[in-house]
Amino acid sequence: MGELVERVDEQDHVLGVVDRASAIRHEWIHRVATIVCRDAGGRILVHRRADGVPLFPGLFNWLLGGAVNVGESYEDAAAREPAEELGVEARPRFLFKFLCRGAISPYWLGLHEVVVEGPVQPDPSEIAWCDWVTESQLGGFVRRQTFVPDAREAFDRYRALIHPPQREAGGPVSFSTMVERAKSLPGSDAAPSPTCQ
Question: In 14-166, where do the E strands start and end?
Fold first, then answer.
């Protein structure tokens, strides 16, 4: 049996434990934790997946991530991934989750963010290439066919959260309004980080 994950429903309640390959094959909803890595200047890490990885080999992505293990929280899974893939110890901040219908299978995608200080040491079995880009550059890159398909929807939701529309009177939208906007997107469950308020 391969990697075990929790099969969940459309409200993210656990239904049981299954093999991840079976979850994908039968299109059972499971959980994935992803991380946006930013440097101190606000640039975002973009990488090309190694040719030997089982899912989306050779495609570009702006998110690190992987399946949430049985009994593991999204936050714990998100903390594990930068260490495994970049050699970086960090505690990512949870931003939101949404039900992603996915290119190969549906899953709840928990999106986190972390500021990476210092050099990264990519695991060559996972990452073939990486570089830091501005958010503006990433906006164009993520629409290209060479990107992991599910990265596009996640990017649109991320931008909606961090760049909320201005009120008609010209003032900024409050953080609580921003979170409500993210929650209003279909399949979303946004939660503010205590450090953001």
Answer: 14-19, 30-38, 44-49, 60-61, 64-67, 93-100, 107-115, 127-133
> What is the longest distance spanned by two Cα atoms in the chain?
58
**What's the pLDDT score for residue 183?**
54
Amino acid identity of 94? F
pLDDT tens-digit series, residues 37-66? 999 999 999 999 999 998 899 999 999 999
Q: Tens digits of per-residue pLDDT, 132-147?
A: 999 999 998 998 779 9
pTM of the predicted protein model: 0.80
- Cα→Cα distances 91→81, 82, 99, 117, Å: 10, 9, 23, 12
Cα angle 97, 64, 137; round to 5: 95
| Helix axis angle, 150-162 to 175-184, nearest 10° | 150
State how far the Cα of 89 lies from the Cα of 78, in Å rounded to an integer.
11
Domains and CATH numbers, the chain: 4-196 (3.90.79.10)
Predicted local distance difference test score (pLDDT) of residue 26:
97
Instruction: Pull the structure tokens for residue 190.
Output: 């946004």
Return the structure tokens found at 103: 């290119």
User: Where would I find the H helices in 123-174?
Assistant: 135-141, 150-162
